[in-house]
From TrEMBL:
Record EC number: 1.8.1.9
FAD/NAD(P)-binding domain residues: 6-292
Subunit structure of this chain's protein: Homodimer.
Protein name: Thioredoxin reductase
Organism: Bacillus lumedeiriae
A Pfam match: Pyr_redox_2
Molecular function terms, GO-annotated: thioredoxin-disulfide reductase (NADPH) activity
UniProt similarity note: Belongs to the class-II pyridine nucleotide-disulfide oxidoreductase family.
Entry keyword Flavoprotein: yes
Keywords: Disulfide bond, FAD, Flavoprotein, NADP, Oxidoreductase, Redox-active center
Reactions it catalyzes: [thioredoxin]-dithiol + NADP(+) = [thioredoxin]-disulfide + NADPH + H(+)
Length: 316
């Protein structure tokens, strides 16, 4: 167990967590930022950001790097760790990771989301051999190949456009006849000569030998099943929360999204949640950073009150 008691431990170094670290460390709170992967969260999987004020065009990994450097500028400590559990002991919260135990007066949870999977035959078998959830990571493996993208939200639409940098053709398979993605993105996709769209269609199976060679499609209106040749499948069908490690705290809804009030407070004093992990979050970089600021200000107040109470009890 580490001897230090941190004022705040921030779990997850995405845009929300990194912003919170800037604010808490700049307020002289002893801050530890923990991340199990590469700092940046979903920014690392995003080719281009064009709606973060002051950047009309920046790559996700570049913005992540800028934020990460900034997050450590005022003295926050950084650790690579996979958090397994948090135990609430009242004025102290204990954070258990794979190989260390940390203690803090408060916690900000900023662990975001992971991609949903289709759960169909062939998906696990061909993961990394034609099936992917990350165009930025894997797109370059598909130069002059034909791809399908599954989904109809912002991610599916944005990433289908990105994949045309490499692929000779990208077919977007959407289960409905209307996209939920922002109209500006849909418009760009529709105008892209390399993108075809197939509506009212779901993938039943991913088929191949050593690697993917086709998908089995079903038209949800007619029930017709067809084989569609493809070299790769990119799944963008939404997100699941990364919150297994807080199961025991009873701060989530039944799907695992963390419930907070508008000040980012969970139902446990001293534990806050920010960004994409929050129930009903808008899931934008800019809103995650706003959440980070809000939680940090709340933490400042909480730790100040806690310190004042313990000073009072020492005197009495
Ligand atoms: P999303 O908005 O939840 O969209 C998921 C899409 O997948 C929907 O079109 C959904 O269809 C479809 N889908 C879900 N389950 C499916 C299944 N089993 N089979 C086939 N299709 C299925 O997810 P997202 O696009 O990953 O976006 C997540 C959040 O991040 C959103 O809030 C989004 O706005 C945000 N985001 C923003 C940006 C940006 O601002 N540039 C970029 C990326 C993501 P239905 O439409 O029929 O439900």
């Amino acid at each position: 167990m580490s001897d230090s008691i941190y004022d705040v431990i921030i779990i997850g170094a995405g845009p929300g967590g990194m912003t919170a670290a800037v604010y808490t460390s700049r307020a002289n709170l002893k801050t530890l930022l923990l991340e199990r992967g590469v700092p940046g969260g979903q920014l690392q999987n995003t080719e281009e950001i064009e709606n973060f004020p002051s950047y009309s065009h920046i790559s996700g990994p570049d913005l992540a790097q800028n934020m990460f450097e900034h997050s450590l500028k005022f003295g926050a400590e950084y650790g690579q760790a996979n958090v397994q559990n948090i135990v609430d002991e009242g004025s102290i919260k204990v954070v258990y990771t794979d190989n260390q135990v940390y203690r803090a007066k408060s916690i900000i949870i900023a662990t975001g989301t992971k991609y949903k999977k289709l759960g169909i035959p062939g998906e696990e078998e061909f993961a990394g051999r034609g099936v992917s959830w990350c165009a930025v990571c894997d797109g370059a493996f598909f130069k002059e190949k034909e791809l399908v993208v599954v989904g109809g939200g912002d991610s599916a639409v944005e990433e289908s456009i990105f994949l045309t940098k490499f692929a000779s053709k990208v077919t977007v398979l959407h289960r409905r006849d209307r996209f939920r993605a922002q109209p500006i993105l849909v418009d760009r996709m529709v105008k892209n000569a390399k993108v075809d769209i197939v509506y009212n269609t779901v993938v039943k199976e991913i088929v191949g030998e050593n690697k993917v060679n086709s998908v089995l499609l079903e038209n949800v209106k007619t029930g017709e099943v067809t084989t569609f040749p493809t070299d790769g499948v990119f799944e963008y069908i939404g997100m699941n929360p990364v919150s297994d490690f807080v199961k025991n705290l009873n701060i989530t809804d039944e799907e695992g999204w963390i419930i907070t009030d508008q000040r980012m407070k969970t139902n446990i004093p001293g534990i806050y949640a920010i960004g994409d992990i929050r129930k009903d979050a808008v899931r934008q970089v800019v809103t995650a950073t706003g959440d980070g600021c809000m939680a940090a200000i709340e933490v400042q107040q909480y730790v100040e009150n806690l310190n004042a109470e313990s000073a009072k009890s020492l005197l009495s």
